């Protein structure tokens, strides 16, 4: 994950959040789950900082979006308690795994602060930067 | 959150608990979740100390009462595992977010040691200090 | 350590700090190192919160003032690295162990935010509440 | 600390590092030590991520540059072990406290990855954004 790519995604995410009238923070990690870029909009609940970090971390560590992770890491899923590994993960949407066109994992983006649906929409919009 | 306001709330909470014949500890944090004031009555279970701190922390970090937080961070809620973020949060009542009349978050109060219902009642009574 | 005693010490410490024109936070723990009361004055550096807690904790866990603890838990002392036990302790003044007249440990008080000398003076003034 | 101010500082820091031919990561926190913005250049040692975060955290929590903090939290200083509080702090340069012209703490910036001297120079250059 290049910093220039992460910065482009971050700017897109913030612009999209502003357009939607919501406040979020955004975290982008590389393929090894290490932070590359982060930003928090004014007015975002402080608890969202750790949440967006964990969403990105969840997505890259298990190579799946955090919304999909939620289906297996849930009391009713087949890997209940998986969410308690790796320092605590997030079993709900807003974390997207980022891959190259050939399927190689590049990293992940996590968005938190708005509704889960809006967080996902913002993350998806930002992820488009990588392929366009 | 001024110390004088926190002290007034603390005294009200302790007086109310004494009137009700229960033992509690009370934690008050500022808008950034940093501790302002704390007190523990004799006889309060020691485990309640961390609980009241986390109730206050939960309320301010997500700008909602911990009883409302419980609805979304529950296995059947739409943000299951949210309680595992930010060092561990509390998904039950007794933490109230405190706001000014214009809606600005001032901080939060957490009460623990009695039944959840009593904890909530004591926290609400204390929170009245801010508006009276 | 009764809450009424802790509250009296806390009020004395805050009044003394105000008289001296400094900002501090104050932590009082019982004989088992569990928090009894805490308060933070406006303007106290946020880092002092953990410091005053650790000063009180250090004093009660080793039944000596944190200034005396500093003499042994120092690279040049005979118990170097002792300060890294128990979740991290403080090897400088401002934490006082509190004893009854027969020498039984009642708890400890920790003060932080001003100079170490002022922190110690404030803690000593507060500790007088117990014997007067 | 506004996100726009933090972003301006971040961009200045990255441009300065590029001009100097070094790789760094940069962390900016608000007055309550909560993250506002972060970026890591390609090639920066991964260990520097936590270092730049702790430099910024140290500076804001004790309202002094981390290079000054080093003087008191050193085994020969008067507050040895202070660096072990607040989850671990950094006793060397590269963290600058940021204040308004009237002395109010706005937050802090931490830079890590190059030599300590270069980290400090980059942080200082970035901090100029706030006053220009």
UniProtKB/TrEMBL annotation, chains A, B, C, D:
Pfam families: HbpS-like. This is Glycolate utilization protein. The lineage of its organism: Bacteria, Pseudomonadati, Pseudomonadota, Alphaproteobacteria, Acetobacterales. It comes from Acetobacter tropicalis.
């Amino acid at each position: 994950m290049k910093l220039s790519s992460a910065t482009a995604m971050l700017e897109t995410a913030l612009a999209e959040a502003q357009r939607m009238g919501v406040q979020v923070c955004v975290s982008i990690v590389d393929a090894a789950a290490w932070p590359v870029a982060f930003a928090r909009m004014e007015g975002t609940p402080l608890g969202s900082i750790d949440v967006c970090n964990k969403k990105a971390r969840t997505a890259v560590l298990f190579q799946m979006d955090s919304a999909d992770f939620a289906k297996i890491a849930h009391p009713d899923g087949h890997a209940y308690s998986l969410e308690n590994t790796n320092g605590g993960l997030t079993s709900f949407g807003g974390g997207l795994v980022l891959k190259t066109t050939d399927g190689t994992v590049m990293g992940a983006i996590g968005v938190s602060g708005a509704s889960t649906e809006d967080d996902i929409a913002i993350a998806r919009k930002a992820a488009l930067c990588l392929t366009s």
